[in-house]
């Protein structure tokens, strides 16, 4: 009896299906099942017990969504509508009146006004120094003119005042100033003669001279004018 106790332990019964072996086998199955679940789980699948988002995360998402909507609304507007909206928001938050933001049209200028202020009868090299966009516009217009014959304004010849300008493309095509009288108010085509006169003028506060060609009908009044302007006669 003592020998039996020694073999089987301190008075107990031993078995091949012990609890330790059972626990080992179940743990292996659990690890295997866990690995299979990890393999089968999709990347975007949430866990069984997802954590509740913090309140600040929800607030940040709302702010981003509102900013996206505001940006899309501003992009859908044109420049003038955006300007009115910004002015309205400024008045709403900081106070004021719309009359304070009304633009004054006193300093408005058209392209024609810019040309009149910066036009030159003849452009020299020194005139092209320190070019501004106004001067560039006037120079671009000057380059399109035809500078062989002039168109004359002789309406104020009694005051010893004469006006000369270069011909435009339409006048060259119609023959004005070459095949028609170069006088602004004359359209005759017969009896024309060419003259080259010394044109003295004041431009931007500076006195200048230029030899210009003029093709007109030499009637009595015009002869008096040409006598004052004549430099030499062209055959």
UniProtKB/TrEMBL annotation:
It comes from the Eukaryota. InterPro entries: Folate-sensitive_fs_Fra10Ac1, Histidine_acid_phosphatase. Residues 16-25 have a biased composition (Acidic residues). GO terms for molecular function: phosphatase activity. Residues 43-57 have a biased composition (Basic residues). Residues 1-65 are annotated as: Disordered. Residues 26-40 have a biased composition (Basic and acidic residues). This is FRA10A associated CGG repeat 1. It comes from Dicentrarchus labrax (European seabass).
